[in-house]
C-alpha cells in the first residue's frame, strides 16, 4: 500500500511541475496576454538575427514581440510587424533599430522614442528604421583598413 501512495505523490509532483512549466512558457512567449497589445509595422533594409518572437524593447525593457517578418518583393526590404503592450504610447517621430545584446548576444528590436506629443495608432508604420549592422563586415573593414584615410 505504501508503494501506491508514494507513486501517487510523485505523480502529483511531476504533474504540478509540468503545469508550472506550461504557465511559464505561456507567459514568456506572450500567449497569456490576449488582447492587451497593439500592432505596429516597420520596414528594414536588413533584419539579420531577428525573427518571430524576438523581443521589442524600449529603454531596455521588453514591451512587445516581433509577430511577423516577410520580404517585400517590390522594395526588397523586410516588412516587419510587432506588438506593443497596450498603454505604452510610442511618439510618432520615434525610430526603430535592430540592436545587439553584445558581442556574442542575440539581436532585438529597440524603439528609440521621439519627442512628439502625438502617438502611433494601432497598425501604423514606423518610417524611421535602422537595420542590423553585420559584425563580420565591421571586423573585415577594421582588419583590411578600408575607410581609413592617411
From TrEMBL:
Gene that specifies this protein: mlaD
Protein name (database record): Outer membrane lipid asymmetry maintenance protein MlaD
NCBIfam families to which the protein is assigned, alphabetical: OM_asym_MlaD (TIGR04430)
One Pfam family in the UniProt entry: MlaD
Gene Ontology MF terms: phospholipid binding; phospholipid transporter activity
Native species: Parasedimentitalea maritima
Domain Mce/MlaD, first and last residues per copy: 38-114
InterPro entries hit by this protein: ABC_MlaD, Mce/MlaD, MlaD_Phospholipid_Transporter
Amino acid at each position: 500500500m505504501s508503494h501506491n501512495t508514494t507513486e501517487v505523490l510523485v505523480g502529483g509532483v511531476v504533474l504540478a511541475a509540468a503545469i508550472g512549466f506550461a504557465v511559464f512558457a505561456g507567459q514568456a512567449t506572450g500567449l497569456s496576454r490576449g488582447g492587451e497589445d497593439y500592432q505596429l509595422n516597420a520596414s528594414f533594409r536588413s533584419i539579420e538575427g531577428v525573427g518571430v518572437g524576438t523581443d521589442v524593447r524600449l529603454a531596455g525593457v521588453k514591451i512587445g514581440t516581433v509577430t511577423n517578418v516577410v520580404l517585400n518583393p517590390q522594395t526588397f526590404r523586410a516588412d516587419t510587424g510587432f506588438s506593443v503592450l497596450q498603454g505604452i504610447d510610442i511618439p510618432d517621430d520615434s525610430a526603430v533599430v535592430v540592436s545587439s545584446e553584445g558581442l556574442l548576444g542575440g539581436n532585438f528590436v529597440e524603439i528609440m522614442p521621439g519627442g512628439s506629443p502625438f502617438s502611433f495608432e494601432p497598425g501604423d508604420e514606423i518610417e524611421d528604421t535602422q537595420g542590423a549592422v553585420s559584425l563580420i563586415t565591421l571586423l573585415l573593414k577594421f582588419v583590411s583598413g578600408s575607410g581609413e584615410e592617411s
